[in-house]
Amino acid sequence: MISIAHIDKTSAPRVQDARSLHSRDHCSTCSLHSLCLPTGLCESEMNRLDKIIGRRRKVLKDEALYRMDDPFTTLYAVRLGHFKTHQVTPAGDEQITGFHMAGELLGMDAISTDRHHCYAVALEDSEVCEIPFAQLEQLFAEMPTLLRHFHRLMSQEITRDQNTMLLLGNMRAEQRFAAFLVNLSSRYKVRGYSPTSFQLRMSREDIGNYLGLTIESISRLLARFKKQALLKVSNREIELLDLPMLKQLAMQGNTAH
Amino acid sequence: MISIAHIDKTSAPRVQDARSLHSRDHCSTCSLHSLCLPTGLCESEMNRLDKIIGRRRKVLKDEALYRMDDPFTTLYAVRLGHFKTHQVTPAGDEQITGFHMAGELLGMDAISTDRHHCYAVALEDSEVCEIPFAQLEQLFAEMPTLLRHFHRLMSQEITRDQNTMLLLGNMRAEQRFAAFLVNLSSRYKVRGYSPTSFQLRMSREDIGNYLGLTIESISRLLARFKKQALLKVSNREIELLDLPMLKQLAMQGNTAH
DNA sequence: CGATGTCTTGAAGTGGTTCAAGTCACGTGG
DNA sequence: CCACGTGACTTGAACCACTTCAAGACATCG
Q1: B219 near B189, Cβ under 8 Å?
Q2: Residue B34: partners with Cβ closer than 8 Å, 6 or more residues away
Q3: CATH class of this structure's domain B171-255
Q4: Where exactly does CATH 2.60.120.10 map onto chain B?
Q5: What is the pLDDT of residue A253?
Q6: Which one of A16, A112, B38, B223 is CB 3.0 to 4.6 Å from B156, fit for a cystine?
Q7: Contact A38, A139 (CB under 8 A)
Q8: Is the CB of A33 under 7 A from strand C?
Q9: Mind telling me how many Å the CA of A4 is from chain B's nearest CA?
Q10: Mean pLDDT for each 10-residue chunk of chain A (257 residues)?
Q11: Would the keyword Transferase turn up in this protein's UniProt record (chains A, B) (predicted)?
Q12: A15-167 carries CATH number 3.40.710.10
């Protein structure tokens, strides 16, 4: 485990120098490049993309990567750690719109208005690659593969959000939570982690907020699933014991409406 | 009123000829070009975009413009009429993900997988412009303004969906329905129609499905709003009598969670 | 070793659903 | 033109899934 919890803020310029000199990783050597923006690029194209990626930035747990209404200049690729994005209404209600893990792009919702439409907050000490959008746009003109993949990523974000709408509009509590777990599972799987054994990076409250349920409901659902031997849970450590059954539950029809 | 309800299907090729010869409208003369894809383009750019727009297509009420899992080749701009988009789960549950009116782009969710992710069905006899995506991509390389606006439209779709997530995850029935009405109102307003007096193009059932409520709830909410003199309603004809109050209701905080 | 925040569990309450009858609007055919 | 049928909507009453409220257990950390 590498600790990135304590950063000497007084030495920021020096650290940046160090990064540009040697410690900076490249898209081509990044283990996430098959999920992230560089997907499908050749070596030389990846290097060009590399050049515009300003710097990596560390974001401590509970720190905001950006805030709602901040002016938009750059996209972020999660390199390490986890984030949540959430909106806040004028009345102060919060809605978490997504949880984001390594290889995912943050900030695409800001393109339409040049201002961020939500908050992005680190769920643990995390790290992102900054991708200045204006420079990325320049590359688009010359790298159709990059552009095409960027469109795929935006489109993916749309379908993801629409799936969540389906979850919130149509599913019962049990289905929602099962779908949530199955979703996490498959995302860890494509990243090479165990699809059945992982840590919940977010609080019960975050889960409840995301799923349109209360924290108590989440707690009860966990207890119920545990009793049904669908999973083991200890604090935020989860082991899915019956993934097929959870998938079944997640797909199950809804008698309502 | 122009009736497009009866189309002689046997004469399809002849009709297409006729279109390409004279009856075809152009982006530059279209009243929607400030909302739609050509936004911000100069005359000559608009003409180039015009050239790739294959044809206009009529879609009768309740007909599908495309179906879930159809292969994706073209985007559609709504030219006339209204559409709904909805997903269907394996279990047969439906979730309407949006209602779409003139000037809006349909099909962007299909880019990520090259297959449509939802159904698009006309709520009344309607008309769309077909925009072959492969050709559009070619234009992107040469028309940065077009590309930029396309990104704005995709980003807009993301923020729209996220707003709906907030609605479904956080709001009470009354707020949801008020927000729905206010949303329609403002969309008609930017199109130059009355923001207070319009027809609901969708059934109560569609509204309920979209808002995650039952048809009975919608009916009761309409009755309540009517009693509170917030609106008049007769069948699908709506008149909003107190738009400020409806906005107030839509923004109101939620005690839940 | 308290103090604080996170989570669990139980009991009571309720907003919206479900179920069941209507009513209304509209098209169709006699 | 009316009778009829059908689909869309309304309204009432009973119900229930999830919330709310409340109390306590547990984990983490200065």
Answers
A1: no
A2: none
A3: mainly alpha
A4: 15-167
A5: 66
A6: A112
A7: no
A8: no
A9: 32
A10: 37 39 68 90 92 89 96 96 95 95 97 97 95 96 95 98 97 97 97 96 97 98 97 96 96 65
A11: no
A12: no
